[in-house]
Each structure stands twice: as C-alpha cells, then as structure tokens.
UniProtKB/TrEMBL annotation:
Name the record gives this protein: Lipopolysaccharide assembly protein B
Function: Modulates cellular lipopolysaccharide (LPS) levels by regulating LpxC, which is involved in lipid A biosynthesis. May act by modulating the proteolytic activity of FtsH towards LpxC. May also coordinate assembly of proteins involved in LPS synthesis at the plasma membrane.
Ranges where the LapB rubredoxin metal binding domain occurs: 364-388
UniProt key word Cell inner membrane: yes
Domain of life: Bacteria
Lineage: Bacteria, Pseudomonadati, Pseudomonadota, Betaproteobacteria, Burkholderiales
Organism expressing this protein natively: Variovorax dokdonensis
Gene3D superfamilies (UniProt xref): Tetratricopeptide repeat domain (1.25.40.10)
Binding-site residues for Fe cation, renumbered to this chain: 366, 369, 380, 383
Record localization: Cell inner membrane
Length: 397
C-alpha cells in the first residue's frame, strides 16, 4: 500500500493551526487568572482601608483561591481573621503555611510568630507557650520572650519567669534586674508559706543582689526575720534600707517600729523616723512615730502674730502638728479617735462616720491605670504593671 503524501501535506498545517489555537487559549486563560487575582487583591485592600473587614476577607479568600502559592495573601488573611476574633480560622491559615515544604526560613519563622499570636489572643496559653518557645534563635526571639513573661506572670510560674527575664537581661537590650528581683521575692513568698524559711531567706538575699536599688527584697526579708523571732536582724535590715531607699519609708515604717520595739532599738528608730518625717512628711511615718511614743514639732502663734516652734508633750498631738502644714482628714481622724469630749455618747457615731470617710483616702493608686486598693501591690492587679504604685496614700498624692 503506497503512502499518500497528500495527507501529510494536509495534516501538518492542521496540526500547526490546532497547536496555535491551544496556546492562545492557555495564554488567554492565564491572562484572565492573572487579572482576576490582582483585581481581588486590590478589591480586598480597598475594603480593608474602608474598615469593611467582612468584604475584605471575602476578597482575600478569592485571591488565595486564584493564587494559592502567595504567602503574603495568607498572612494578610490570617491577620484579618485574628483581628476579627476568628482565631480558629487564623490558626488554620498559619498552620497551612507551616505545612508547606517550599516555605522559606524567614516566612516559616513569621508564620510561627503569627500562630503564637493566634493562640495568645485565643487564651490558649499552653499552646501559645509551645509556639513561642520555637521562636528561640529567630528575629522574633525577644518578642517571644516578652510574651512568655506575660504568660508566666498570669499563671504565677515565677521560676520560669525568672529564667526568661535572665535571658532578656543578658541580651543587654534592657535591664530586667528589678523584674527578676520581684520574681525571686514571689518564689520566696511561696517557700515561706510552705514553712521553708531558710530557702525563702536565701532567695530574698539573692533578690537583693540582683536588684540592689529595689526596696521589696529588704522589706520582705525584714518581715520574715521578724516573723522568725529575729527582730534585731529585721531592724538592721530596715535601717540599711532607709539609707538606700528613703522614699519607700512609708511602706516599712510600721514594720520598723515593730522590729525596733521588739529589739530594744526604739530610741534609734524614733530618731531615724523623726529625721525622715522632717524631710518628707507622711501619715504612715507619723503613725510609727506616735506608736513609739515620740512626737513632732508644733508651731504656736501668739496674739502678736509671732510664731514659735515647740515639741508637743502628748505624742498624739503630733497629728495636730501635722495638720498645721498638711491638711489631712486621716490625721484629724487619728487625733479625734483618742480624745474625750463633754458629750462622749455622741463620739462613737461621729468617729465611725469619719473612719468611713477616711477609708478611700487610705488607698494606694496605680499611676499607670488608676486602680485603687487598700493593700499596697508591687504588681498591679488591674494593668499587670510592676512598681506602678507610689508609696503614698491617695490623700498624700
């Protein structure tokens, strides 16, 4: 059977035409998809700028479907889900990114950081902790350590918090010595509650070395020494603290008075308190002075208008001396509480009313968030800030 060359001549042009048509179709489809993907992306960006997050999410989902290999779209979509509070969807997006084998190391670390943020915002602290620990040695290392500090503080895992704070301290980007001192004091408090006084004292001494300018280690140490029956040591600890942290004296004036009275150092303590009170008057320091039987100076004015400073005989009259220069409802209430009046039967209800009015003035107020409490906090329960409470009552601010 002879081969007919006419079929070959007809087939070659036909194959060429079909191939050309197929290539044109592929190019047209490719152009269409490329036009759709940027169009969806810019539409989503426009929605995002107009704060229309629902429409932006729909547009980005469309863009991701048209171009599933684009990492930036995945990151944008995941961040949008997180901002919307749709944490499960954000987690799925970032876990999908991490499952891709073609992801660069930089994008993988970025996805890991985003995943940790998803878990943090969702309140899944254990999963957030595991995700943050994987960022060690990356550019997100310090951010991850700060987030871990927050987790450990919320869960009161002070040993882990101190270890992380030590790493941050060693990075030399900021000083975390004071924060480490607080963590050691918290550990010491837990040991003391379990009856391990020796271990608590060792931790407090370590805290004093880590944070030499912080008053808390010495105050906690003196309180523990007094509790353990060593008032002389407690007084020595607070006496040294008065030289390094005089502004914090209102926080430990009562403790110093108790330690001095129990160790026969009342005279020395009284002289120190009177000297500090003269430099910086405070109702707490004045209370300690009165409790030790001491007094302050009272300014007397005669009929001619001249004044003379005398030392009051009754220690309680020191509150009146305080009132001359520092109007204080607290000091007035303290003085009235021990006075005897002609109509004594009316004194108790009046005193109760005064005490009730004084209670808000005796609170401490956080300088960061304004949270008020009758107890002094080193760690604010409201905003979680450290050392945000001034050592003075609300009335004295």
């Amino acid at each position: 059977m002879d081969f007919d060359l006419s079929w070959l001549l007809l087939g070659l042009p036909l194959a060429f035409i079909l191939g050309w048509l197929a290539s044109r179709f592929d190019l047209r489809q490719l152009r269409l998809e490329n036009r759709q993907a940027p169009k969806a992306y810019f539409r989503g960006l426009n929605f995002l700028l107009n704060e229309q997050q629902d429409q932006a999410i729909d547009a980005f989902i469309e863009a991701v479907q048209n171009d599933p290999d684009t990492q930036e779209l995945h990151f944008a979509l995941g961040n949008l889900f997180r901002r919307r509070g749709e944490y499960q969807r954000a987690v799925r997006v970032h876990e999908h990114l991490l499952s891709r084998a073609d992801l660069s190391r930089a994008d993988r670390n970025r996805a890991q950081h985003a995943l940790a943020q998803d878990f943090l915002r969702a309140g899944l602290l254990d999963r957030a902790e595991a995700a943050l620990q994987k960022l060690e040695g990356t550019i997100y290392e310090n951010d991850a350590r700060m987030a871990l500090l927050g987790i450990y503080e919320r869960s009161r895992e002070w040993t882990q918090a101190e270890a992380v704070a030590r790493k941050l301290d060693e990075s030399e980007q900021a000083s975390y010595g004071t924060r480490r001192g607080h963590y050691l004091c918290e550990q010491a408090s837990e040991l003391a509650a379990r009856g391990d006084a020796d271990g608590a004292i060792a931790l407090l001494q370590q805290a004093a070395q880590v944070a030499p300018a912080a008053p808390r280690p010495a105050i906690d140490l003196a309180a523990l020494q007094l509790q353990q029956g060593a008032p002389a040591q407690a007084f020595a600890t607070l006496k040294a603290l008065a030289e390094t942290a005089p502004l914090a004296l209102p926080l430990y004036a009562t403790l110093m008075q108790q330690a001095a009275a129990a160790s026969q150092h009342s005279g020395e303590a009284l002289a120190l308190l009177q000297r500090r009170y003269a430099a910086a008057p405070s109702i707490d320091v004045l209370d300690a002075i009165v409790a030790l039987g001491g007094s302050t100076s009272l300014e007397e004015i005669d009929d001619a208008g001249s004044s003379d400073t005398v030392t009051v005989a009754n220690p309680r009259d020191s509150y009146v001396a305080h009132l001359q220069h520092h109007p204080s409802l607290v000091a007035a209430s303290r003085w009235l509480a021990g006075e005897r009046f002609e109509r004594e039967a009316l004194h108790p209800p009046v005193q109760r009313a005064l005490d009730q009015a004084v209670r808000p003035l005796m609170r401490y107020r956080c300088a960061a968030c304004g949270f008020e409490a009758h107890q002094y906090f080193w760690h604010c329960p409201g905003c979680q800030a450290w050392d945000s409470y001034p050592p003075r009552r609300v009335e004295e601010l």
